[in-house]
Amino acid sequence: MTYLRPTPIILPGLLQGAASAALRAWMEDGGARRFDFSAPPGEPALVAADSISWRIFKNPIALFIGGVAAVILELAEPRVRTGVWEHTSFRDAPLKRLQRTGLAAMITVYGARSRAEAMISGVRRLHEKVAGTTPAGDLYSADDPELLTWVQATASYGFIEAYHRFVRPLSAGERDRCLAEGTEVAALYGASSAPRSQAELEALFRATLDRLEPSSIVQEFLAIMRSAPIMPLVLKPVQHLLVRAAVEITPPDMRGLLDLKGSGLRSWEQALVRQAGAFADRVVLDSSPAVLACRRLGLPGDYLYRGGATSECEQ
């Protein structure tokens, strides 16, 4: 079917100001004081403004759900799990870690190319210092192209699947296009074999399945995501719901392997999350990296939120 993109939503004055300020505070706490998405004027990003990626990453519901799903899959790989859990601040300062990770994702997609490349180079220098041995005795290093490919692939899967399931359906062609859009960025991070299509992604998942294993760390991560002060207290039930939505989109065979069965969503909860995702996809906030990046390129701030027919969607 042909999907008609709804019209943008501009929140009423006070609400728009409060929402924009909250988003700005979140980004600044992650380090955005040092990063200006509106500069330098006219400089393109690593990914084009008319990409599927730019439309997906503007949606906070898809990013939250997809990001949690991606980490679930990352932690299923024992070498990645050991590196993440022993060499990052996730356990001790989860909120700061989430903010920095979220900001890095925004810079990768929306930041001016020169500044995004500089940020990625800094990440790679940090990775060069991370190495060790898993509890089972396997060596790992954070700059291993195989492990970086797994991390990049699981992130792509999480964001694409979350948008597809809870915002709007993506056609097979759109999913392939989004994966292909990310390969240049993946190579900059050191993931030299990132999947370029859904077929390649599924092949990687099949090839990796035998190396994945259950771990109490996955459950610990999910507990952190439910309890971390990501949302205001009044929205805690929504936060719990979005964490379960992330479990819902984890591939069934991997969900079973990780003993996450029964942790997904009921049908009415899926409908509720879809409504939230569709609404979030229409809200234009002045402080959004997507809006600022559009203005940097001389595009209207609501460019990514405007109507018009997209390609054919395959349900």
Task: Give an overview in words.
With 315 residues, the chain is mostly helical. The protein has one domain (50-280). The chain contains 15 helices and four strands. It has helices spanning 13-29, 52-57, 60-76, 78-87, 94-110, 113-127, 145-166, 172-181, 183-189, 198-208, 216-227, 236-249, 252-257, 267-280, 289-296, and strands at residues 2-5, 131-133, 139-141, 308-312. It has a two-stranded antiparallel ribbon with strand order 1-4. Strands 2-3 form a two-stranded antiparallel sheet. Helix 3 crosses helix 12 (236-249) and helix 5 packs across helix 6 (113-127). The longest helix has 22 residues, at 145-166.
Could you outline the blueprint of secondary structure elements for this entry?
Layout: E1 2-5, H1 13-29, H2 52-57, H3 60-76, H4 78-87, H5 94-110, H6 113-127, E2 131-133, E3 139-141, H7 145-166, H8 172-181, H9 183-189, H10 198-208, H11 216-227, H12 236-249, H13 252-257, H14 267-280, H15 289-296, E4 308-312
Antiparallel strand pairs: 1-4, 2-3
